[in-house]
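Q: Here's a chain of 497 amino acids. Please give me its 3D structure as tokens.
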Amino acid sequence: MKTNINKSLKINLLILIITSLLGFIVNKYFSKYMGVETLGLMRLFSQIVAYLNLAEMGIGSASSYALYKPLYENNYSRVSVIINTMDYFYKMIGFFVLIIGLGINFILPFMLKNGISNKEIYVYWSLYVINTAVSYTYAKYSILLIADQKLDKVKITQGSGKVIIQILQLLSLIYIKSFLVYILLMICENIYVFIFLKKIYVKTFILNKTEERDKNIIKDIKNLFWHKLGGVIVFNTDYIVLSKFTSLGTIGVYSSYLMIYSLSVVLMMTISNVLMPIIGRFITKNSKELIYKKWREIYTIYFYFSTFYIICTYYLIIPFVKLWLGNEYILSKVTVLLILCNLFISMTRGAIDIFKETSGFFDDTYVPFLESIINLFFSLILVQKYGLNGVIIGTLISNIVVILILRPILVFKRCFDKKGMNYIKIMIKQFLLVILSLKILDFIFNNLISLNKYITWGSWIYNGIIIATIVGIVVSLVFLLEKTYRDLLIKKVMKKI
């Protein structure tokens, strides 16, 4: 099992590195040839599309949870029912997204501060909608394969399609300079993934056709919809609020930092996606006490890695953006710090989310509603006085109240039979380790170590190696104060011996 985990992580990380590197290059040339306002428009479209994806209502999560046990027991008649249920809903959703999405053309002018001057924007948006509808044609294949611990095959298919299309997009930006061609290539990517995932599905599974639908999935979907709604409002209102109160240019600059943000979150999701089906099966076979101990280990690993990653990013992100896109894309240190605070919470939340989803804990429907209300309320108020920083602070407030405190407490009670205060104590101890690490590193970099000025990519890489080495040593030593971390380290050393 451990070999499979290591293999999956290596494959997924390799794909992530390649696609992310190409993504940064494509973004650079997009902003160069299409302009920062078109870049902002593209990011705005992505957030509006996220609202259309509310139609998915959490079918993926509900179906994944339902699939773990029958796949483990080789109960393929039950699997057939679940697949039929997914197929039925996804066909409806694809049609719904297409109709409603095209209808949004009529309200697009009201989403932009200065309205719409270029009529081609309607064509661009319509193609975005078609691309979204196409993505639902292969959703059931990827969900089933991932639940059956065949994440590698899904990621290789999606990754290869992404790489091919990114290269073609890059060439089209340089030689054709057309946003229209750029979007058409996005649709080609979804068609590619559909064709190859279907081939893998047909070769891997022989399922009976059935008209029966799973009622439990339908029940979970109703609860998960509210989680989807909360998530969409929290993660996909920034650009919409900014487009109304600031400008597409601000979105273009901010979105470049969010590319790094998204890469970091995807990195942790890559680990989570590998762990999800494994933890799902672990939960079906073990007591809540053993499940809690497993969570404690995973939480410590997530916190350790996130601390190391965020501190390195703090020292390296501004010079990276300067070398990547130029001085006009530089945000203030305060803005960057606020972004990184949100990123830290987003990276560490995976340890809770894995156990929440795989335990089938979906009925806390008021939580995402509360999260979205807090986020939207503070963002709309603060953006008018603090602009971009106000929107980021609005997200940070909701993250602290709900993601960092409320949701873990509920998971402790439901999934582990533990009091919420137990979690609060663990969280405070972890944050004390983070603060101690920051204080030590701040002293080292301000008084003991002098870094080269960032003039070239070579000097940035050189400084990056020094920073990562020092941060890694300090964080590793500080976390030795934590018992779970020590136990994990001792266990690993003993296995090596």
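Q: Can you summarize the key feature?
A: Residues 281 and 351 are 16 Å apart (CA to CA).
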